[in-house]
C-alpha cells in the first residue's frame, strides 16, 4: 500500500515578536529542534534585547532568523556591529531583509541595498530571506514589485547567499496558489515560506487583515466567517490547497504569524506537521 505523501506543513517557521524566555521555552517544547523562529524588527527594541532574544532561541535548540529593516539602519558600521554580535552570541546564520515602511535614516534605501552593501557573508550570514506579496503591495506597482524581487534574488545569489522568499500573509488559498504558480512559471525556483496566520479568532483576523493591507482575501474570509465565528480558526484551507497543488508550486512551507497566540500557534504547527495528505 502506497504511503500518503507528507503535507507541505511538515516543515514550518514561526514569527515571534519580542518573545519572553518562557514563550521560547514553550515553543521549544512543542516544535521540532531546529525550527526557524523569526524575530521581527521592532522599532522600540534595543540591539541588546534583540541579541538576547536570538541567543535564547538558539539555546533552546531552535534556529533564529532576525529581521533587518533596511531604512531603520543608521550606518554600515551599526549593521556590522549588530550582525557581529548576533553571529557571535547566537550563531546567527539567517536573516530576513525588509525595506521598512519609513524614510531612510541611514545609507540603506531598501532591502536590495542591504543585500548588495551589507557585507552579509563576512558577518557569517548564509541565507537571506526576501519579502514577497501574494496580493501585491499597497504602495508598490506590481511591475516594480516583480522587478525588485528579481534584483534581490540575483544580488543574493551573486554573493553566494542561499535565498528563501517569505510572504506576507493572505487568507485566500486560491490567490496564494495562483501567485505561487506564476512565480514558478517565471523561473523563480527558490523555496518559499508562505505567510499565514496561526489559530486566531475571526474578529482578530479581520483586524489584522485590515491593518496589513490584505483586503482582497479579507473579502473571502468574511464570506466564510459565518461558519467559524466561535473559537479560534487556523489556516487549514490554505494548507489543504497547497498540498493539492504541490506538483505546480514547488518547495513551499508555512510561515506562521502569531499575533499574540504564540504557544497556540506552535502547538497547531506541530500538529499539522505530522499530518499526511489523504489519498484521493
Known CATH architecture: Alpha-Beta Barrel
Query: H/E order of the elements?
Result: EHEHEHEHEHEHEEHHEHHEH
Low-confidence stretches: 224-231
Query: Briefly, what CATH class?
Result: Alpha Beta
User: Helix proportion of residues, in percent?
Assistant: 40-55%
Count of helices?
11
How do the strands of the widest beta sheet line up side by side? 1-2-3-4-5-6-7-10
Largest sheet report: 8 strands, parallel, barrel
The secondary-structure class comes to: alpha/beta
Beta-strand percentage range:
15-25%
End-to-end C-alpha gap: 14 Å
Strand element count: 10
Look at the structure and give the mean pLDDT. Answer: 89
Radius of gyration: 18 Å
- Give the overall silhouette: globular
> How many domains would you count in the coordinates?
1
Give a description of the structure.
The chain is an alpha/beta fold. It has one domain (8-273): TIM Barrel. Helices cover 43% and strands 17% of the residues. The chain has helices at 21-30, 47-59, 76-90, 111-117, 142-158, 173-185, 202-212, 215-224, 236-244, 246-249, 262-273; strands spanning 13-15, 36-39, 63-69, 94-98, 127-132, 162-167, 192-197, 200-201, 232-233, 252-257. It has an eight-stranded parallel beta barrel with strand order 1-2-3-4-5-6-7-10, surrounded by five helices. Strands 8-9 form a two-stranded antiparallel sheet. Strand 1, helix 1 and strand 2 form a beta-alpha-beta unit. Helix 2 (47-59) packs parallel to helix 3. The radius of gyration is 18 Å and the shape is globular. Residues 224-231 have low confidence and may be disordered.
